Amino acid sequence: CYSIGKHSTVFKRGKILPDTIAHSKDWKKRAATQVTRTLLQSPLKTLRLFIYREKAQADKHVEHAAVMNNITAKYFYHWNLEILPILRGIRKLEEKENNTTLIIPKNPPKFVKESLELLEPERTIIEQGKDQIIKIDNLLLPSYPQLTQKNLSWLRKTVLQEIDDGSENYDKLYISRQREGKRCVENFDEIKGVLSKSGVKIVKTENYSYEEQIKLTANSESIIGVHGAGLSHIVWSKDLNVLELTNRNINDIFWLISKQLKHNYYSLEGKTDNPSRDSNIFLEKEKLKKKLEELK
């Protein structure tokens, strides 16, 4: 089979392999987006593989490989909770330890490299770039990970066993996303006092390395934040209180993760005049104060 382009779209006899892109629920939508982008980046090479089913002239040739790349791989949440658990399948399926080369995106975000340096320091890794074709003789293809209790518990255990527990701990953390420019708290300066009086430490996780972020969050008793990638850190803790701040477009993904890990989940909807999923919110101080008091 062949992997092509910066999202590592994998073809075998002219067909896309779905488990390299998403699980069955999201596959069609993501596949359409990924193939479209691959066509735009490498039209002739992609057409030969997809439509004409021709063998391609490869830029690299790998005997044993697994793909840890798709259109979501550059995003912190998707990398942590969808892509990294692919390692569970790889470790179970490969015949010889560290025999499988990992294919990841070219020039990946820092957290991608840091997480693999932590978990797979001995393994060969190839960064696949735009318009590049990699021929794979033996593709190791685990089922695309879902947010099951087993996958999430495996991820927590596997990552934490590689980390020394030596950082400063805070019982209650607020993970800020004020720098993102979307899904922010409009009156953040007003609520900082409420958070402080409730013993909540405000952190900007982007200022920390991957390992430091995990050390910071793994021993917390409560994690609070607006819906976004930062809340994926709830996976590292046990017996956690999760307070998710939302706009009107409620996505239940962190409720699901909390349920799978037996966390205590709470939510507080902020005010917004914008129906967009990325709209900012206004939080009433008294409502936030009461919700913080509810945390066990």
Describe the structure.
- It is a single chain.
- The protein has 296 residues and is α/β, with parallel strands linked by helices.
- Helices cover 33% and strands 20% of the residues.
- It contains 10 helices and 12 strands.
- The protein has helices at 27-41, 43-50, 76-83, 86-93, 110-119, 149-160, 188-197, 210-218, 253-260, 285-294; strands at residues 2-4, 9-12, 15-16, 60-67, 101-105, 125-128, 133-139, 172-175, 200-203, 222-226, 241-246, 264-269.
- The chain has a 7-stranded mixed sheet.
- Helix 1 (27-41) crosses helix 2 and helix 7 (188-197) runs parallel beside helix 10 (285-294).
- The longest helix is centred in the N-terminal third of the chain and has 15 residues, at 27-41.
- The chain is globular and about 65 Å long.
- The model has no long low-confidence stretch (mean pLDDT 91).
Structural class: alpha/beta
Please state the average pLDDT score. 91
Oligomerization status of the protein chains: single chain
Give the number of DSSP strands. Answer: 12
Shape assignment: globular
DSSP strand (E) fraction? 15-25%
Could you list the spans in which at least 5 consecutive residues all have pLDDT below 50?
none
Head-to-tail CA distance between termini: 52 Å
What percent of residues adopt helix (DSSP H or I)? Answer: 25-40%
Task: Itemize the secondary structure elements and their pairings.
Blueprint: E1 2-4, E2 9-12, E3 15-16, H1 27-41, H2 43-50, E4 60-67, H3 76-83, H4 86-93, E5 101-105, H5 110-119, E6 125-128, E7 133-139, H6 149-160, E8 172-175, H7 188-197, E9 200-203, H8 210-218, E10 222-226, E11 241-246, H9 253-260, E12 264-269, H10 285-294
Parallel strand pairs: 4-5, 4-7, 5-6, 8-9, 8-10, 10-11, 11-12
Antiparallel strand pairs: 1-2, 1-7, 2-3
Helix pairs in contact: 1-2, 7-10
